[in-house]
Amino acid sequence: MRQHRPLSDCAESLIAYELDDASADAARRAVTRALVGSGVDAPTADALADSWVRTGDYLFEAARLPRADYVIGNPPYIRLEDIPTETANLYRNAYPTMRGRADLYVAFFEAGLRQLNKGGACAYICADRWMLNQYGADLRRLVTEGFRVETVVEMHNASPFEDDVSAYPAITVIRRGPQSRAVVASAGPAVESARAGALAASLLSAASSSPIPPPEGLTTAVVDRWFTGADPWPCGSPNRLALLRRLEDQFGPLESEATGTKVGIGVATGLDSVFITKDPTLVEESRLLPLALARDTSTGRFQWSGHYLVNPWEAEGLGDLNDFPRLRAYLESHRDRIGKRNTAQRNPHGWYRTIDRVNVDLTAKPKLYIHDIKDCFNPVLDRGETYPHHNLYYILSDRWDLEVLGGLLLSSIGQLFIEAYGVRMRGGYLRFQAQYLRRIRVPNPEDLSTTQAAQLVKAFRERDRRLASTVALVVYQVSESEMHSAH
What we know:
Elements: E1 16-18, H1 21-37, H2 42-52, E2 53-55, H3 58-61, E3 68-73, H4 85-94, H5 105-114, E4 116-127, H6 137-146, E5 147-154, E6 169-176, E7 182-187, H7 196-206, E8 218-223, H8 238-250, E9 252-253, E10 262-265, H9 272-275, E11 276-277, E12 288-292, E13 308-310, E14 313-314, E15 317-318, H10 325-333, H11 335-339, H12 342-346, E16 367-371, E17 373-374, E18 380-382, E19 387-388, E20 392-396, H13 402-410, H14 412-421, E21 430-431, H15 434-437, E22 441-442, H16 450-462, H17 465-475, H18 480-485
Parallel strand pairs: 1-2, 3-4, 5-7, 12-19
Antiparallel strand pairs: 4-6, 5-6, 7-8, 9-22, 10-20, 11-13, 12-13, 14-15, 16-18, 16-20, 17-21
C-alpha cells in the first residue's frame, strides 16, 4: 500500500447509509465483491463492508457523524406530505431549510453541506427543482452564504439513471468556502456514450485558462458571478445563463416602483362551487363581481364566460351580512360546507370570507392576465372589466401601454425569461407564477421608439410571435445567433 498501512485502518474512512435492510445487505455484498476483486482478502473485505455500509436514517444520524471531506449521494425524491406527519415534523425541526411543500432531498442537501470540512465538497445527482422553486429559497441562501457552487451539470435531456425517472436531474458540486468562478454545463443524450474520464476532465478544465474541448453532447460555460441570497438559479443551457446575466445587468425587473408596475394573483375562495356563479340574480347586484377564469384567456383574447364572484368584502374589510339579506340567506344555506374550510375555522366570526381579500378597485383597472400553467407566454388584455380568479396572474402598470408590454412578453425574449426562471412540469408545461414574472427584465417604456411600440401593439393584437420577437431582439440588443445559442 502506498501509505504503508493496512487497509483495515480505513474502517472509519467511509460511511454509507441505506434505510432499507435488504438494500443495505445488497450494498455490503457488492462492496465485498469489489474489494475481493481488487485483491483484498475475504475477511478484511467483509469487515470493511460491514463498517462502511450502515442501515439507518442518514437524516437522523448526520448530526452525530464526523466531519467529512466528501459527501456523495443520490437523495430520494419524496414530498413531505407523503411522509408520516410525526416523522416529517422531526425532519423539519432538524433541517430548517425544508420550508413549505418541500421535497425530502432538501434536507439531504442541508445535512450533507453542514457535515463538510473546510474545503470539503458535496456532490449530488438530484432533481434540480430546488434551484428555482420557492421551497428551495432557504437552501439557496444557505449555499450562497457559506459555500461555493463549483459545478452544475443539468441533465434534462440525458438519461443518467437505469430506470426512467419523472424528474429533471442535475449534478451539483458544492464546496465549503467562498464563492469563485462556477462551471455550468448541459449534458445531452450523446453524453451517455462518452467516457466518464473525458467528462470529468472537461468539467475540471472548463474553469481554467486553457479548457479542453468537451466530448460530444456536453456544453460548458464559466460563470464569473454566481447568484446571491435566495434568488433562483436558472441553470439551464450555459449560453442561456450567460445571456440572462447580461440582460439582468442591463435592464430592470418587470415589477418596479419606478414604472408603477405590479404583479399579483387572483382570488382564492376556498370553495368555488359556492363563491362562483353564473346567476346574476343570485344575491344583491353589488355583491357580484364579473370574474375572469383561466379558460377566458385561452384564445389569446379575453372572452368572458359569464361567471361572477360572490363577494363578501367591502373596501374597508369584510362586509356585514345583515346589510345584505339575500347574500346572508345564500351563504347561510351553505354554512356547513363554508364553515369546514381552514380559513373559516381560523376566523369563526368571519366564517363567510374568501381565503383572499378582494380588492374591488382592481376590477376597473386595465391589466394583463397570465394563465398560471401554459406551454408558452400568453398575455391577454382585460380593459378593466373583470376580477381575476386564482389561476390567473395579473400585471398592472402606471407607465406601460399594456399592449406594448404584452407584445414584449409575447416575444422569444419573454419566453426565454420564463423558461429560465420558471419550473417546467410534466408534459412540458411551464408555471407562470408571480415569483418568476417579477424577475423578467424590461426596458424603460420611454426607451422604445414610436415605431417599435406600434409594432409591438400590432404583434400583441395579432398574436404574431415572430414580429414580437423581431422587435424585442432589437430592443434588448440581442443578436439572432446569440438567441439561437441560448436554446
